[in-house]
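ok so I'm stuck.
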Amino acid sequence: MFNPQLPITRFYPKHHMTSPSKTNRSFLLKVIGTLLSAGMLTALIAWSWEDVVVAINKISWLELLAAFGFIFASRLFTVLRWHTLLRSGGIPIPLKNSLSLTFTGLFATNFLPTTIGGDVVRLAGTMQLGYDRAICLASLAADRLVNMTGMSLASPLGFYQLLQAAPAAAQAAFIPGLWRKGLDFARRTLASLGIWLKKPLSLLTSLGFAFAHMLCMFSANYIVIHALGGELDFWRVIGLYSFAYFIGNVPVSVNGYGWQELTVSALLGTLGGLDVSIAATVPLITRLLHMLASLPGALTLPGILAKMDKSES
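replied:
not stuck anymore, here's the structure
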């Protein structure tokens, strides 16, 4: 029998089991982290404001549309990734419902205070449709793990660039800890995929959709970088953004705002060698495109939130 409790608790928040004071303190620290990250990014942009304006003026509407198209396509592959896990887990959900719930979750992520807020909305939606809560919750954890696995497989391209730039002493201090974290991630992945390890074809299909999602995301960033006047090989874009994915998901700000953009800017500037104005502008443009690509979820979010309130009252 599949026991979802072990994998679920490893990847979903434990604030329900912590005291209110600890939760409030954690949220306060994230607010401070958001303000600091946003302040540093704002200072970076203000410092080279004239160059930022020049860079933005270089990008054409056609290039913006192409980048948006890749980001929107990445969202569709995200739908297929989760839908594959749901169906293979025994949830008979139609594709249109997976599509609706995924976009609702993506839209909610723009406003909810944690990076998994969208997953909470997706779970609420599946429960409203009458599906098994445990399997749906496990599928969300597995969905995140599959995406993380895809990024992990691409991240060596980023680590290679980091090690090329870092001194030998820093490498000696950095690599052992990285190796331990990698082994820990592998163990948690195997423990959390439970039911799907018995269906390798479905798991590989989901991973394939994760790779397609990543390729679209990297392509969108590549377009924006070059449209702004930057020069960066595609393999380097893959490496830096996969590396930034893990750093940017460290919970030091509310929903990653400011921190994720600052991380990308720092990596593009220091390891990518891009001009400060371009490195600071790229994550702001892509953040806006991400928000625009999630707008279809605005149509269904109010209904789900209303039903969540009713279920709690």
